[in-house]
Amino acid sequence: MNQEATSGDGAGIDRDGRMVLDPFEIRVLAVLAEKEALTPDIYPLSVNALTNGCNQLSSRDPVMSISEETVNDVLQRLIQKKLVAEVSQAGARVQKYEQRMRIKWTLEQDKLAILTLLMLRGVQTAGEIRTRAARMHEFSTVADVEAGLQFLIDKFPPLVARLPRAPGTKETRYAQLLSGEDTVERQEVASSFSSGSRVTEGSRHDRVGQLEDEVARLRSEVDNLTLQFESFKKQFE
Description:
The protein is α+β, with helices and mostly antiparallel strands and about 240 residues long.
């Protein structure tokens, strides 16, 4: 499913007074957390790198098409919500951004990896999370993932929900609650329609994701070399 993004107001506050994030805020925030773990050499991210991550075709459910203008708007909302910080780096030509989820909700890397995957890829089982989280955090067993999920469920307010087991299924599935409890049912329905294609195409998408991360790293190295060359030229002007 491809979702076209346009700028707009965030979802705001739910009926219980809790902060709720819209789908584009979820995507931007999750991509920042993902790239922090996968490509630390280019983190924090520029708007351009962040936009590319949001529009990535692999390891995303749903697939989105987001403009840089929209990403800029979303970043400003997340900064106001204390979930993102703008970072000024010496010699950098552009502003960069970092996520603050680990600070706001006191999350260690294992819990952050679980939450990030649920934000990026929708409803999943503990086994799926363990497989997909390998590059963000290495879980020794599925039980370790389940312990992390329980921690996120027990937070107040909870960040994750355990879904009722669907008829004919053997494993419990989980969903993130940052977009509000009303969205959990929609996530579950969407997951049931797309689960088959995720199984057959998952490994291919993961390989594509690795290549995209490598391209992002190489682009960052080129940018750094360009900055160094420009600084060198100025010595002779």
